[in-house]
Amino acid sequence: MENKHYDRKEKEDKPVLAICYDFDKTLSPDDMQAQGYIQSVGCEVDEFWKESNALAENNDMDQNLAWMFSMINKAHGQVDLTRDNLNDYGSKVELFPGVEDWFSRIREYGLEHGVKVEHYIISSGLKEMIEGTKVAGEFEKIYACSFYYDENNVAVWPAQVINFTNKTQYLFRIEKGVLDVNDQGVNEYFSPEEIRVPFRNMVYIGDSDTDVPCMKLVNKYGGHSIGVFNADTKDKSKVYQMMREDRIKYFTPADYTDGSELDVLVKAIIEKTAKAEVLEEKYYKCRKEYIKADQLSDENERERTRMINALDNSRSFAKTYETIEKLSEYTAWTPEQIERLFSIAINNGQVRYILADADVKMFYGNLLNKVKVLSEDAKKVKEFLNKDQKTD
Prior knowledge:
about 400 residues; alpha/beta; seven-stranded mixed sheet; 16 helices; 7 strands; about 10% strand
């Protein structure tokens, strides 16, 4: 089987903040199927879900597969369950206040602070309906349940099913920039500095326990999880429970208007991301430098450095004697290493106190013989050694 080439997102020259959303009751006040489709097939909303859930329970069936089967089954003789018709149902889905201009406003705010903001949907709802909404074009990727269509463009079989437990795989796809659902590259190893969107730069916004695995994962690795509730009903029972169980860091009304509580919170996260990534960039720069230095030096060189560090940190005469003995085994030293050893002899009282001892004197005497122009510390070491000779 020939390996297909998949387009992947590369790491940016500025930090990327990925904001991931559930859809139903997060961006929209109700389940999307309940806003046109269920009514069009002559069902009551509550009855549709009752039958669908019973189908799942009685057949050890995934609940999402059950409602997808029910949609296909109940459409027979009622409506054509085509992609276009599902898009049309989606166009009628109600959105929470401020949602329509939220995505562009937040992207713009991110750019003003040196952060690239990307929006993603990770939903157990129906992709074709989400693609029909007014905001479909705002997302880098929409991960949701979807149908396979026959030659007449009629839905006949599930193509993708996303439930609350497998939602988390899409966070890993976003993390690595491996967005295609069939790209097995999501299982490849990426070093920390190669990660496009580290979890600390992820925000997950959801409304219920179906979002818990994603929220828990984002929380665990330093990201930001936000629970939202309907501002009209003011029912906070679900967000209270998620907070109680340490699933979310914050909760706000599902109000996406400019200046709302959610708006202020997300903008604060953007500002924090901008500042924190400066430190991360510095960390990886230092890490890259030391790795390069290690690659250029051999094991003996690293061992000499470790011994010098041990001498510098020595706080007992026994440890000092032991370290000097090991250092004496080496004859090749760089000028920088020699200078540091002189500095340690002057500034570490444990070393300075025993400079006159035979083994220590011999070690530092050999170092002095390697130096043509003495530094101030080298002069002080020589003075200590000469003074001891005069005393003898």
